[in-house]
Amino acid sequence: MTNAPENLHILAVHAHPDDIEFQCAGTLLRLRQLGCRISVATMTPGDCGSAEHSQDEIAAIRRAEAAAAAEILDAEYTCLEFRDLSIVFDNDSRRRMTEFLRRTKPDLIFTAPPVDYMHDHEITSALVRDACFNASVPNYRTRQWDPAPPANKIPWLYYVDPVEGTDHFGNRQPVDLIVDITEQFDRKFQALACHASQREWLQRQHGMDEYTEAGRRWSSARGEQVGVQYGEGFRQYVGHPHPTSNLLAELLGSAAKSVET
Ligand SMILES: [Zn+2]
């Protein structure tokens, strides 16, 4: 059976260290428990996430924090080495993302939603969707060192929630699936807590000491929608040329609750 969990490679790509932990770590833990191979990638090393360290210093700290969080998820971690507030949709970025997908050959991808509170997130979303298509096009050259062969399939694609779940106008963004992560929540919380520098930075920047509490509140709000303690919401991309079967729901069975939109 080709879709047996142990044959599947799940990849989560988001902009910054900690985005993945906030939005889909519980689901990744569930998929890992089923036997899937898990990889996580951040576009940047979070090099603008500090008021006291230089870009290189904070980048080194945050790469290490992201790697520690990935270890809790039993996932492989890659930093794609873009830079904070400098993720743009250009041909160089498109080639780099395409090369990454050709090399990692994921079966299912989680990424940032198309509409979110900041450009880094939205451009990451666009680059991932674009690269899913481009990776399979044989004549598309990535111009990277020792390029990987073209992909032979298009992965399933799921968008995670935007920050605070809203669009640019404060409207709640719909999801079509909420995964019950109640059992996984403690480990998700541990993974989130690995990002110690961000707890401190947000406290200084926004005067709030609620980094992990925000994660708890959001998971709790999504869980409440489907009558469980903690949840994570997803929206599947079902446009051409992605597979339209709901692999995530198939894999997770009763832990995946569909939501009427
Ligand atoms: Zn982010």
Describe, in plain words, how this protein is organized in 3D:
The chain is an alpha/beta fold and 261 residues long. The protein has a single domain (5-258), classed as Rossmann fold (3-Layer(aba) Sandwich). The protein is built from eight helices and eight strands. The chain has helices at residues 19-34, 55-72, 91-104, 119-134, 185-193, 196-206, 211-225, 247-252, and strands at residues 9-14, 37-42, 76-79, 108-111, 156-160, 177-180, 231-236, 256-258. An eight-stranded mixed β-sheet has the order 3-2-1-4-5-7-6-8, with helices on both faces. α1 packs across α5 (185-193) and α3 (91-104) crosses α4. It starts with 8 loop residues before the first strand and ends with a strand. The structure holds zinc ion (ZN). Zinc ion (ZN) binds next to loops. Residues 15-16, 19, 121 line the site of zinc ion (ZN).
Descriptive terms for the model:
Rossmann fold; 8 helices; eight-stranded mixed β-sheet; binds zinc ion; globular; alpha/beta
Helix/strand-derived class? alpha/beta
Q: Which CATH C-level class is it?
A: Alpha Beta
Return the domain count: 1
User: What is the rounded distance between the termini?
Assistant: 32 Å
> Which residue ranges are poorly predicted, with pLDDT under 50 across at least 5 consecutive positions?
none
Q: How are the strands ordered across the major sheet?
A: 3-2-1-4-5-7-6-8
Q: From the structure provided, what is the oligomeric state, counting identical versus distinct chains?
A: single chain
